[in-house]
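Worked example

This section walks through a single chain of length 657. The input is the sequence exactly as stored; nothing has been trimmed or padded.
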Amino acid sequence: PEFTALGPLHLRAEFDLTQIGDATRVDRLSAAIVGARPIATVDSLQTITYNPKTNELGAADPTRDLFAVVLQGVPLAWAQPFVKELVITGGDLRGEYVARASNGGFSLRSRSALVVEGVSVAQAGRPLVHAVDLSLNASFDYSPHGWQASVSPLTVRSGSAMLLTLEAKAGQLAGADQSIKTTGKFSAALPALLAQPAIGGALQLTRGDAAGEFAASLGAKQEIQATLSLTNLEADPKFTAEKLPTISADVRADIAAGGQITINVPLLIERDGRKTDLTVVGTLMPGETGLNVAARVSSNRLVVDDLKILAAPLALAPSVTAAAAVPADTRDSAPPWSGLNGQIALALKEVVYSGTFQATDVTGTLRLDAGALKLDGVRAGLGNGGDARISGVVTFDAKAAMPYALNADLAVSEFDPGPLFKALNPGQPATIEGKFNVTSKLTGQAMRLDEFATTTHGDFQLSSKGGVFRGLPVSVSAKNETIGRVASLLAIGGSALDALKGRKEDSEITSTAKAVAEVSKMLAAIPYDQLSVAMSRDATLNTVLKDFTLISPEMRLTGGGQATHQAGVALLEEALAVEFKLRARGHTGDLLKYLGKLEAQADELGYSACTLPLKVGGTIGKPDTSELSNALASLALEKSGVKDKASDLLNKLFGGK
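Given that input, the structure is written out below as tokens.
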């Protein structure tokens, strides 16, 4: 019924056959399949003999072709019974082949390439391939000793764009238990290839080439080896303008007769002269509930930024992310480890983040059990004696609105966050320097695994016994210097005038400006002896500072507040609202008292409350202490008496009263 468009099909054949013992001689053969139009023809080109007992094929003239096969227009629908799970549509298959006797067998060669245009493939209603044109030059050799086929080349195009070029050979010797051997090489233009619906437009590359070679032995034991390189990668500028790395991989897989798969996959990523290496080795064994895995992931040096930059081309295409095109339920239907059970050991010698923060000797085990991913004894060295340990589990429930769930415990000792602050916000002094002990309970839910980076929340307890706190970035130094210079000039002018008049008057303008400058400097970078912080990231993803306590010989700083989460806004750009309270003594207390910003009553340790407004706004990446800065600048102006002195000096200079 699929072929009714061709009308009734007819086989027309003319032949002259002679049986001579076990051999059949064909003196003439002409056959054609026709419908509403010609479909295919086969014509002998000389006398042919064939012995089925010995599988020998002979010709009257071995130097001449035996027969020709011409495909004028074979419908693709004829292939449907052989690919029942797929629906293939497109134009008719055209091409021409000739056969020649060779080594007691025959060889088949292209006289003109096999061509088919507008091929589309779908599975269960889901399109996989759309409107591609295929061209194939191939050959096939058969003899009593075995067979060999070659493709040179197969090309796949979409319009004017080349998607794929493949050259390959395969063969098998005659006899029992002989393996099929195959080798080949390929190249692909990634933007056009990734635009096909099987990929779904999920990889956004404007440029990129893939190339590789492969070799395989397919028998009772299957051995596969392949190399792959991805070069000249460029992402859509809407997602990133950064240079993408070059990627190369050398894959080896052995499949035993019992089904066990042994893999060895070294991966190399190169970018801006840096190299990231990652190697996966292990075994996969079919089990009752899927594949049992025992693997090891190792690396000598892993640069996180070079891995992160690869995520940019993974952004969904605009046409996919348009509201009308996005389904209401965008949950993962299964986790990446679905069907896997077993364990994966980690052995990462060096993990580098932004060139300034690194972890060393990352070890531990990822256990896959009953659909859950368990982190067992995962540990990392953090430099300068620091250490982090995490244990927990990620579960998956396909029926839940948020199918992924995370529960984990994190413990960090002797961790210096300074390099991390610098990595997150280059060019700015670290907000906190010192070594911290951190304990945390992390929880989270997500529709997709990659969402955990933004949806995980929990409580954190941090403590440190020495360091520097720069959470009050006072920015009045330039204003203060100007005030100081003006005050000094006024003081000199006033003193000179008084000297001319035979009078000398003491001035406090310079000392007041100096006091403000010194207080500003102290608040901008506070050395501490003890610092404890209790904070959380709540269910609404707000970062809440519950309790902040800093103790130094001359200052005690307490406070709280929060950074408010906004969808689509980066962590460093979240709005910040924190308020601190300061108590001071010693030289700091004397300065604040001199400026009139210290209450008279002291506590049992001699600390008195400061009345300066210690509020921090802005964002996490760019905290704003303008209220404090302005208060200090105004204080310098008022306490220095610049307005009064200026007026008094001008009166004196111009004879006023």
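What to look for: The first strand starts at residue 10 and ends at 20.
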